[in-house]
Amino acid sequence: MATLSACASPPWPNPNSPNSNPDPNFLPDQSQTLDFDSLMPPQPESPPPHHHHSPDASPPESSPSLPPPSLLYLSFNQDQACFAAAADSGFRIYNCDPFRELFRRDFDGGGIGHVEMLFLCNIFALVGGGPNPQYPPNKVMIWDDHQGHCIGELSFRAAVRGVRLRRDRIIVVVEQKIFVYNFADLKLVHQIETVPNPKGLCAVSQLSDSLVLACPGLHKGQIRVEHYAQKKTKFISAHDSRIACFALTLDGQLIATASTKGTLIRIFDTDHGTLLQEVRRGANTAEICSLAFSSTAQWLAVSSDKGTVHVFSLKKHSNIPELEKTQSSSNSEAAVTLSNSSRSFIKLKGVLPKYFNSEWSVAQFHLQEGSHYTVAFGLQKNTVIILGMDGSFYRCQFDPVRGGEMTQLEHRNFLKPEPETAL
Hints:
- The chain is mostly beta strands.
- The protein has a domain at about 240-415: Methylamine Dehydrogenase, Chain H (7 Propeller), CATH 2.130.10.
- About 5% of the residues lie in helices and about 40% in strands.
- It has two helices and 30 strands.
- The protein has helices at about 320-325, 340-345; strands at about 5, 70-75, 80-85, 90-95, 100-105, 110-115, 125-130, 140-145, 150-155, 160-165, 170-175, 175-180, 190-195, 205, 210-215, 220-225, 230-235, 245-250, 255-260, 265-270, 275-280, 290-295, 300-305, 310-315, 365, 375, 385-390, 390-395, 405, 405-415.
- It has a five-stranded antiparallel sheet, with no helix packed on it. A five-stranded mixed sheet has the order 22-23-24-25-29, with no helix packed on it. It has a four-stranded antiparallel sheet with strand order 2-3-4-5, with no helix packed on it.
- Strand 19 and strand 20 form a beta hairpin.
- The longest helix has 7 residues, at about 320-325.
């Protein structure tokens, strides 16, 4: 059970009352207060100024003699314009395009196992982690970067496995339960029981007029979808094997799922639970590290421990009625696809393996096998951002017509300091 305790700090900020004295050192041309009506401001046109010392913060530059931190967690913010890196010494926030470090908060030997951004505002959710956690692993700390310290906390009986934020909700994942809180007053509004969920799998829509939450169900291979506006719960039997990864579109209308086999990715309509499309990553078992829809839901990116990032083309929404009529209800791991390229195989069904019916990725990018990569779509058209737990940052572009190997536009190691340039 969760409990709320106040930290020795000013009271919880009022979402409707902008901070009259914002910190001048924090992203001056972005949204600076917990204002839910303006949490998607334009990208800054110039790098943020140098940060001053504070009791809980360190300056952006690091001493060349210090070794780089050990990464514990990587995540993109809700519009995928920025990403957060949690490490054994604190956390850092980066801009994706153009790439640059926006700021960092280094704690004195305290590790952060999870950091969750709320678009580009000053509020973050932190969970302690690493050999010397900055905070107990069973607590979610609400960090206000204007004030430079925590302004509240949520405590649980079990270790926190994941946190998701949106303008009006805080979602906390523990091993077999999910807690949903109202953001304005931290009131608990819903509890959901799940199968054991050590990876903290959970996804939430981000449009203000649509609150959709997806999480593992109570059975192997099952996804539970909560449609809060309609007060409706939908269970989807997505796979025969255990769920390994899933992602929602911004509006929560579509969900992409992968099982522990990692060979097939399935896309479902969350409202009816209808299987709309099935695509194949490969023939061999793989661990799916991340799934990401493009903002228009035209493309789906997939990363795995095989070292290849795939981009798949998704069917248009206008095809959904046709798919609903012809789609099989089978839950097996066999490929089920209705694309034009596969219709010619229907007559040979039972003769050729269903492997040959599969829809394959349009574009690929090859990386080091065995590493963990997180993927998202960039702000530029047909670009993909790839983050590695080794500190690697890639920005790639794919050809939506010709497909094939993506073009690498940029590669950096965001853990290593870069030489300063004169402004």
